[in-house]
Automatic annotation (TrEMBL):
Residues 14-88 form the Ribosome maturation factor RimP N-terminal domain. Residues 91-157 form the Ribosome maturation factor RimP C-terminal domain. Residues 168-204 are annotated as: Disordered. This is Ribosome maturation factor RimP. The gene is rimP.
Length: 204
């Protein structure tokens, strides 16, 4: 789930080694948009503590830009966006379901599982290659093969907001005062991203 399309997977192969060299792990890569102006979104975090700073996003953006400029895997103009996974982050790796055990999540599978594809409940860790989740309204913990997941994301709850506040406090950032956040280049986005760094490339 870190890469959705064949194009995303090819980009991930280029980006993964760059991130690893900086002590970072790529959470997700998505190339979005049409032919006129596309957006390459990279979500990343530190391998050590699963957090990331604005400065680290900027370093990764510069390093990735150099690799992409040399390899030229994307035709035309595009916007490169490097960010944290955000508070209500996507769960794209098996380890994510251990890291966020106890938090609420929505899951979608690529095939029918007992008559449905969408699930919501409390993440209960992993068992082998399966994701464990305590589904709403059911007594037993369900096991869903990680390979069957098409999408998974944390649900924004009070508990998750408290975790985000604790991370901001650990970074020495001010507490969220409930006011709209500046989402300009390099600034925090309250809902989706802790930090962003944008750059552009033009084939002209």
């Amino acid at each position: 789930m870190r890469a959705k399309t064949a194009e995303d997977r090819a980009l991930l192969e280029l980006i993964d080694p760059v991130a690893e060299s900086l002590g970072l792990a790529v959470v997700r890569v998505r190339l979005m948009g049409g032919t006129l102006r596309r957006r390459l979104q990279i979500m990343a975090e530190r391998q050590a503590d699963h957090d990331i700073s604005v400065e680290e996003c900027a370093r990764l953006s510069r390093a990735v830009s150099e690799v992409l400029d040399a390899a030229d895997p994307i035709a035309g103009e595009y916007l490169l966006e490097v960010s944290s996974p955000g508070i209500d982050r996507p769960l794209t790796r098996l380890i994510d379901f251990s890291l966020f055990e106890g938090y609420e999540a929505r899951l979608e599978t690529d095939r029918m599982v007992e008559g449905r594809k969408r699930f919501k409940g409390i993440v209960a860790g992993t068992e082998g290659e399966n994701v464990a989740i305590d589904l709403d309204g059911e007594d037993e913990t369900a096991l869903i093969p990680f390979a069957w997941l098409a999408d998974a994301k944390l649900v924004l709850t009070d508990e998750l907001l408290k975790r985000g506040a604790a991370l901001r406090a650990a970074r020495g950032e001010p507490e969220d005062d409930g006011l709209p956040q500046d989402t300009s280049e390099g600034a925090p986005d309250a809902e989706n991203s802790d930090s962003t760094q944008d750059s552009t490339k033009d084939d002209a």
